[in-house]
TrEMBL record:
GO terms for cellular component: cytosol. This is Ribosomal RNA small subunit methyltransferase G. The lineage of its organism: Bacteria, Bacillati, Actinomycetota, Actinomycetes, Micromonosporales. One of its GO terms (molecular function) is rRNA (guanine-N7-)-methyltransferase activity. Specifically methylates the N7 position of a guanine in 16S rRNA. PANTHER family: S-ADENOSYL-L-METHIONINE-DEPENDENT METHYLTRANSFERASES SUPERFAMILY PROTEIN. It comes from the Bacteria. The keyword Transferase applies. Its main location: cytoplasm. CDD domains: AdoMet_MTases.
Amino acid sequence: MGVGSAGPGGTPPGPAAVPPGSPDPAVAVLPPDLAEAARRLFGDRLDLAAAYAELLATDGVVRGLLGPREAPRIWDRHLLNCAAVAELIPPGATVLDVGSGAGLPGLVLAIARPDLAVTLVEPLARRTAFLEEAVEELTLNGSVRVFRGRAEEAVAGPDPLLGDVVTARAVASLDRLAGWCLPLAVPGGRLLALKGASASEEMTEHAAAVRRLGGGTPVLHRCGAGIVDPPTTVVEIVRERTVGSAARVPSRKSRSRRR
Ligand SMILES: C[S@@+](CC[C@H](N)C(=O)[O-])C[C@H]1O[C@@H](n2cnc3c(N)ncnc32)[C@H](O)[C@@H]1O
C-alpha cells in the first residue's frame, strides 16, 4: 500500500516518529512514503501509534500474535488500514471490536480517536494478556477495556455489552458476523466489517441471512480514499430489528453435524 495525494499538514514526520529505545527500529520504523498518511490519520497521536507499532513488531511477533513477515508491513497493512475506518464512526461513540486479536482495529481506533470508548472482545487468553499489557503501556486505560470471551458470550449474562458501533476484521463470514455482532449493537447501531477483495460477493451471498438476522441492506464503503492506497473496504450493516436466537446462524460445528 502506498499513500495518496498529500494533504495539509506540512512536513511529514518521517522515522523520528518512532520513540527512542525501539529494540529494532528496522521493523517498527514508519516508512517515509507512509508518513503523510499516518500524520493525517493519527494527527497528534502519531507517537502513540508508533509505540503500538513497535509493540506489535516486537512483543506481538515474539508472542506469535502476528507473523514475522507482517513486521515490515505493520504500518500499511495494519495501522493505516484500520485507522482509515475512523471516518465512519461518529464522535463520542461506544465501539466494540469483536475478535480483536492483537488489537486490530480496536486499539488503532482508540489511538486515532480519543473521543471513543472502546471494548476489545477476544476469547483467547494469550491475546487478551497482550491486549491488557498494551492498554497499560500505551496508557489507554481511560478509554479502552478488554473483555475476554466470545461475542456470543458478551451479549449474554447480567451485564451485556452494547455498542453504537461493532467492528470486526478477519474474524468470520458476513452471515456469522451479523449473527454475533448485530445483537451487540444498540438498535440503529452498526456493524462495520473490514473485508478484503471478496466483500461484494459476500454481500450478495449473505444478504438474505443478514436480513433474517435483523440487519439492513449491507452497504459497501471505501475508507481513506486519497490517503491510503488501496482504501480500506468496509461493509456496513445497520441493526434494524431484534431477532430471537432461533434466527441466528448455526456454528460451523453444528452445521457439519447436520450434514
Ligand atoms: C484472524 S484473527 C483476526 C484478529 C484481528 N481482528 C486482526 O485483524 O488481526 C480472528 C480473531 O477472532 C477471534 N474470534 C473468533 N471467533 C470469535 C467470536 N465468536 N467472538 C469473538 N472473537 C472471536 C479469534 O480468537 C481471533 O483472535
